[in-house]
Design goal:
49% strand, Proaerolysin, Chain A, domain 3, 7-stranded antiparallel beta sheet, Immunoglobulin-like, 10% helix, 2 domains, 339 residues
């Protein structure tokens, strides 16, 4: 018995068990919790929807060399439009022309935007771009050669509802060209043509006939003039600061161009040379009233040219085409009495 009593006394006493009390949430707190869960769920769905409908171009910026070129931009969807194009220098809207996809001009010289397929163009002659959207989910950006002497940059702003996306376009400064040579050739529209200029009208009133001596070229600019002209907008930019003297024709006959070591500066300004005619003319003026005038004959010569340049960056050849024009007196003239 004694040993049994010792074992019983050494057992660990059982702790009292408290009855389970059910926790009750405050009704206001419960409504707030449910509201937060619903709000987070809605925001999550909205975020997923925005992600699906967001504007996602394949590139966010384009950097192109001065020679120009084109870049194709792809999109994950086509739910967007071009809301504006900004000049990055002044953050001003760029004006230009808007065309349909078929090339029909719809609006001219207005702030550029496009809400469907079509084409936008801005051309300053020495720089410019064409932006074409032929499909809903693609955009083609083409830059003209940049001959401004400074970088050219602009921003395409895309919109979809309240969303906006910018694509920055930057074109590098040109490294210029080196002059290689110039070729002259005859095309169908080239050759010589003749025209006349009327000189000073002289009026006389005399009682006796008299002899009158005068220059038949008086009152007429009879300087020999020549210049280069071209429809290419950058024809005279690359050499404007270099004062390049090139060989020019001296004669044209039998459909052959002849040279005689005569040079002229390559530019679009008229180059003048003094005339070689110093002849004096004498007429007999009759008694009474009379009038005389002189008509001087001029030749206009037109010959095509090709100017050859080499790009300093790429070593690629650039050919500029145009016309060389020369206007000069032939030395032939007539003195006419006016009745």
């Amino acid at each position: 018995m004694r040993n049994l009593d010792i074992a019983v006394h050494n057992q660990i006493p059982e702790l009292p068990v408290k009855p389970y009390k059910q926790y009750k949430m405050n009704p206001l707190r419960m409504r707030i919790s449910i509201g937060l869960v619903l709000t987070m769920s809605i925001l999550s769905c909205s975020s997923d929807k925005d992600e699906i409908n967001s504007i996602q171009p394949s590139v966010n910026s384009i950097v192109m060399e001065a020679e120009g070129g084109e870049t194709e931009i792809a999109f994950t969807n086509g739910d967007w439009d071009i809301s504006k194009i900004l000049n990055k220098d002044g953050n001003m809207k760029i004006h230009g022309d808007i065309y349909t996809q078929n090339g029909e001009l719809t609006q001219q010289n207005i702030p550029l935007s496009l809400d469907d397929t079509g084409k936008l163009t801005a051309d300053w002659g020495i720089k410019g771009f064409t932006i074409t959207r032929t499909a809903a989910s693609s955009l083609n950006v083409e830059l003209l050669e940049n001959s401004t002497g400074e970088p050219f940059s602009f921003t395409i702003v895309l919109s979809s509802g309240n969303q906006h996306k910018k694509i920055d376009v930057t074109q590098k400064i040109s490294q210029g060209y080196q002059y290689v040579g110039i070729d002259f050739l005859l095309k169908e529209e080239d050759g010589d043509s003749i025209f006349v200029k009327e000189g000073i009208k002289r009026n006389f009133k005399t009682e006796q006939p008299l002899s009158f001596k005068f220059s038949p070229y008086e009152g007429i600019n009879i300087l020999k003039q020549s210049r280069f002209q071209s429809s290419e907008k950058d024809a005279f930019i690359w050499l404007k600061d270099d004062s390049i003297a090139v060989d020019v024709p001296t004669d044209l006959y039998d459909d052959t161009i002849h040279f005689n070591e005569v040079q002229s500066l390559y530019n679009s300004e008229w180059v003048q040379q003094p005339h070689e005619f110093n002849k004096m003319e004498s007429i007999t003026v009759p008694a009474g009233e009379s009038s005389f005038t002189t008509e001087v004959e001029f030749r206009q010569r037109q010959i095509s040219y090709q100017l050859h340049l080499i790009n300093n960056r790429t070593s690629a050849e650039k050919i500029i085409e145009g016309k060389w024009i020369e206007i000069a007196p032939t030395g032939t003239y007539t003195v006419e009495r006016l009745d």
